[in-house]
Amino acid sequence: MNQPTLVTLGDAIASFLQEPDLATRGYCMASKDQLERGVRIDGGKPQRWDGRCRFWGATISLPRWLIFLGLYVVVCRSLLILFPLPLPTPLLPFVLA
Length: 97
Hints:
Order of helices and strands: HHHH
């Protein structure tokens, strides 16, 4: 085995800088949409900026957001059931009477 092992992230970056990956050449400015549509990117040529403002949460798909929020609600409800909040002490005499 002639090639050194990649132990840290720095090793991987150094390896990539020494021997660039030809399969991804020219894709440094490719957008997610272009990669999903399979658009061929001409390496080294500038691309037009579309100027659309994007919501910060748009990187995650809607189904994943819904799954996350559903699980969050389930966990919160479970915690409230397992560890109920105690009644404030000034109200205890009225509850016990």
